[in-house]
Amino acid sequence: MKASIYLAIFLIVGGIISYFGFSTYNNFYGVAKEAKNQSSYSFEVNSGDSLAEIAIELQDDEIINDSSAFVVLSRINNTKALQSGTYTIELDNSTSED
At how many degrees (to 10) do helices 2-29 and 67-76 cross? Predict the structure, then answer.
């Protein structure tokens, strides 16, 4: 009886962790739906633009799903700012069904 309760709790907690892990992965690495129709995306970074401003622009243009996740991941990777200039991102349009 005790073992089945522990097993049920383990499965529930494992399912919750898996769900949030997949959601987090998708937010960090997922490409927004509209971006899948493009082969590349260019954007301009002006002097003084913050990572948050850049992230919001990328989210507004549907290149990334979550601007907050972009900023957090940038800080984790110790990126404080981008140099001003034009950036081009090559988008991977492949799907897992190919």
Answer: 90
